[in-house]
Amino acid sequence: MTSLHRALVGFLLVVLAAVSGAASKSFTITNNCEYTVWPGILSSAGSAGMDATGFALAPGESRAMAVPSGWSGRLWGRTLCSTDAGRFSCVTGDCGSGKQDCAGGGAAPPTTLAEFTMDGSGGMDFYDVSLVDGYNLPVLVAPQGAAAGGNCAPTGCMADLNGACPADLRVASASGGAGAGVACKSACEAFGSAEYCCSGDHGNPSTCKPSAYSQFFKNACPRAYSYAYDDATSTFTCAGGDTTYAMTFCPSTTSVKAAGASPQAAGGLPLMNDTMVYLGADQLGAAAAARPPSSLLLAVAALVLAGALC
């Protein structure tokens, strides 16, 4: 099936679902990266399934999908995928099914996750982009056509963090040069301690606090979840209605403009902190020197520079 045929099928599914009343919402998933991305989809237990749970998106390709009423689950992007001896697998975001279709398998961390609960409490849609399980791709989620109400705004992580990832969190590419990164682990995955995993004695908001590692993610992507209890600035809601959620891999400022929202929306929170975008060691050093000399910011700058230089 050609990309044009897939796009037409996706569009017809959305139209038919809307006419039949089976669904009033949809996802439009776009790959703005310079390489193929294989989206994965996992529905929560008890939630109706989507029409597909995994597929390929070539650079510049989009796919529209109808969303069942009350659906909840997560979406992510898989990268560096291939088929060996008949088994499909990906270097990042692999769901373990051995096929393009994830078929109920979840994303192996580290992976950037987009999480949704449709038609939830008060009829609101709840959504977020989470780096709690680490990061592998820049992702933007932007609601379109939503009714007034809620904290309804684009969210995500637009920065490329793989190059700037601290050395002790970095997932290196087997085929890349020394230090080449394809993903960035969470501190929980890297070290497994209760302090970073918000477990055991640290299993509540009073005892689990941001760390220098979670601040690396938060400073780069202020609206994304950086650790388990990062709810206040990371959960977004839209009033019920016929809302389309545009999910873009490797978004650009053009993507934000197309979503009809300012990067400074959502209570003044930017979509990303420009000083944390990976540009190279010299630019990062200059950006770190220009920031206020608080101990926390200096610690984060040191982590970023360590990741860029090691």
Describe the structure.
This protein is an alpha+beta fold and 310 residues long. It is built from 7 helices and 13 strands. Strands 2, 4, 5, 6, 7 and 12 form a 6-stranded antiparallel sheet that branches. The protein has a 5-stranded mixed sheet with strand order 3-1-13-8-9. Strands 10-11 form a two-stranded antiparallel sheet. Helix 4 (212-220) packs across helix 7 (295-309) and helix 6 (281-290) packs antiparallel against helix 7. The radius of gyration is 19 Å and the shape is globular. The model is unreliable at 6-23 and 275-310 (pLDDT under 50). This is Thaumatin-like protein 1.
Q: What string, H for helix and E for strand, traces the elements in order?
A: HEEEEEEEEEEEHHHEEHHH
Radius of gyration: 19 Å
Structural class: alpha+beta
Shape: globular
Supply the number of helical segments.
Answer: 7
What distance lies between the first and last C-alpha atoms, to the nearest angstrom?
Answer: 44 Å
pLDDT averaged over residues: 79
Helix content: 10-25%
What composes the largest sheet? 6 strands, antiparallel
Q: How many β-strands, per DSSP?
A: 13
Quaternary status: single chain
Beta content comes to 15-25%
**Uncertain runs with pLDDT below 50, 5 residues or more?**
6-23, 275-310
Topology:
Blueprint: H1 3-20, E1 25-31, E2 38-43, E3 62-67, E4 72-84, E5 87-92, E6 113-117, E7 125-130, E8 139-144, E9 155-157, E10 170-172, E11 181-184, H2 187-191, H3 194-197, H4 212-220, E12 236-238, E13 244-249, H5 253-258, H6 281-290, H7 295-309
